[in-house]
Design brief:
The structure holds 2 protein chains of 2 kinds.
Chain A: H1 13-20, H2 35-38, H3 57-60, E1 61-63, E2 69-73, H4 82-94, E3 101-105, H5 110-113, H6 123-150, E4 157-160, E5 163-166, E6 171-174, H7 175-183, H8 214-218, E7 235-239, E8 251-255
Parallel strand pairs in A: 2-3
Antiparallel strand pairs in A: 1-2, 4-5, 5-6, 7-8
Helix pairs in contact in A: 4-6, 6-7
Chain B: E1 2-6, E2 9-13, H1 21-28, E3 47-50, E4 53-56, E5 69-71, H2 83-90, H3 100-113, H4 119-126, H5 136-148
Parallel strand pairs in B: 1-5
Antiparallel strand pairs in B: 1-2, 3-4, 3-5
Classes of the chains: A alpha+beta, B alpha+beta.
């Protein structure tokens, strides 16, 4: 018997970095931004969810030397586009070029990624602020790294369209060139993160970004839970009674492989 | 021994001939683009083509396809650029996407037999393909777009 092995790996953080992210990318030790601070703008209910929310770019964003930005989708795709929209918000604040953004799915790990219940039509409501903060923090770290390299005040430089620009001198550095330096910086505290003005949004509210899985879905390549094959996986079916309310014949029947 | 073609390749199977084609495709060939939905031909998620016609793989036995040709979503177009697939992307049809391989195969079979279906004909042909996300309006629009090349 041949099986397509679509393995979902529940990798450790170290393994995750090694597997997905190149050395020198924008990733350092995860540092938890307390939900209350992260959500200072207005309450959404996210702060009451078990395990809270995460907004630290050290956890959710990495940038490879070639400039490819990888953003972790902490929520699942249930058909409302959360797997695309949450990373898209990060990319917008980060001033990343979406064509150079890749989305990777977080394994189920709420201790690490915060609440992952993709339900209640609230993933976006709960995450628009933390995801904006995440992207803005990452952009500021890249700006700080560029300013340091040029020996100028961070206030004089600006991250825009995948590069940091020093307008006064016309100098530019791509995000990929700054990733290693930026990754060594601490995440700015919540009260020092400056969000974009809404009129500067690249993707939010534009309705122009297709879901990241569009091609894979239309070609049968998208992987769903039923497609997952794990080592030593066991199979079972729910045995349903043939008449209503008959509990005596209900159960779970393991299947021989 | 049952012989048939899947996506242009000749295959033979000497197991239980009553095995559903869906199981054979997913578990034996690893063609997991075709989805299990209900298992009793009520939802259309497992739709494939058998000799060009839409068929529910969950209730089609391997024995039923002896000497015939099966096309799955993986084999609809080598580059994933069948007019239906392109229209699906142009109009952002899918949401969760689970039923979409079946929807696309059903739509492609319809257009193969009816190059310019009316809305009524589209609804009739697609009525056995259920979408939990409720993408029906975009599905209909995409079939019209694929038909007219719009």
């Amino acid at each position: 018997m041949t099986l397509a092995h679509a393995v979902i790996e529940n990798v450790s953080r170290r393994g995750f970095l090694k597997g997905v992210l190149a050395t020198g990318s924008l990733v350092v030790a995860a540092k938890f931004v307390p939900p209350r601070a992260a959500l200072a703008a207005y309450a959404t209910g996210a702060e009451k969810m078990p395990h809270g929310v995460r907004s630290d770019p050290h956890l959710l964003v990495s940038i490879a030397p070639d400039g490819i930005v990888t953003i972790v989708a902490i929520r699942s795709e249930m058909g409302t586009g959360s797997r695309t929209s949450l990373p898209m918000i990060v990319a917008d604040e980060l001033e990343a070029d979406w064509s150079r953004v890749r989305v990777v799915q977080a394994p189920g790990d709420e201790e690490k990624y915060g609440n992952q219940d993709t339900d209640g039509s609230r993933s976006l409501r709960h995450h628009i602020q933390p995801m904006r903060q995440c992207g803005a923090a990452a952009r500021q770290m890249l700006e700080t790294a560029a300013a340091k390299r040029w020996g100028v005040d961070p206030g004089e430089v600006k991250g825009q369209n995948h590069e940091v620009v020093h307008k006064a001198s016309g100098r530019k550095l791509g995000y990929g060139e700054l990733a290693a330096d930026a990754s060594a910086l601490p995440t700015p505290p919540a009260d020092q993160i400056k969000l974009k003005d809404a009129n500067a949004f690249r993707y939010i509210g534009k309705g122009t970004t297709p879901i990241v899985d569009l091609f894979d879905i239309t070609t049968g390549r998208a992987i769903y839970s039923i497609d997952a094959r794990l080592p030593g996986m066991k199979y079972a079916i729910v045995a349903r009674p043939v008449v209503m309310s008959n509990r005596s014949t209900m159960g779970v029947v393991p299947l021989p492989i | 021994m049952v012989k048939f073609q899947v996506n242009g390749q000749t295959q033979s199977f000497d197991g239980d001939p009553s095995m559903p084609l869906l199981w054979y495709l997913r578990d034996e060939l690893g063609l997991i683009g075709t989805k299990f939905g209900c298992g009793v031909a009520l939802c259309g998620a497992c739709t494939v083509h058998v000799d060009g016609e839409a068929a529910r793989a969950c209730i089609t036995a391997v024995n039923d396809i002896a000497g015939r040709s099966v096309i799955t979503i993986e084999g609809l177009d080598a580059n994933g650029n069948h007019p239906v697939q392109k229209a699906w992307r142009a109009l952002n049809v899918p949401q969760c996407g689970y039923c979409q391989a079946g929807q696309i195969m059903q739509a492609a079979a319809l257009l193969a037999s009816n190059k310019n279906p009316s809305e009524e004909e589209i609804n009739s042909a697609m009525s056995g393909n259920i979408c939990r996300c409720g993408c029906y309006q975009r599905i209909t629009a995409a079939i019209k777009a694929a038909a007219t090349g719009a």
